[in-house]
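Morning. Coffee machine broken again, so started the prediction first thing and wrote up yesterday's gels while waiting. Chain of 105 residues, entered below exactly as on the submission form.
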Amino acid sequence: MKRKTVKTIALPSFVLAVALSALWSAQGRDAKVAYPNMAPLEQYLMADRNAEIALARSAASPAISHGAKVLVLDRNGYETAVEGKNGFVCVVERAWMSGFDSTQF
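Came back before lunch.
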């Protein structure tokens, strides 16, 4: 009885694992073809650092953003432009931070 139960569970589980593995592998190949290279970093950088700080702060009310840490993107990644005091962070997010189902991604 136990042997039959194990076979009943093991075989469908094995088939499911093989099918999921094949789908995962196919998805990886498609992703490599669709985006062979990353866009140039210059497309994501803002020329005016003060404009980026102002844009980041505009996402919250002045009561919050006035004391918030502000991050800006430079060639080496995000860096702190303004030290914060209240535990909040203001940042201008780029398209790569969007969810996969976002139309902007």
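The first helix runs from residue 2 to 34. Going to sketch it on the whiteboard this afternoon.
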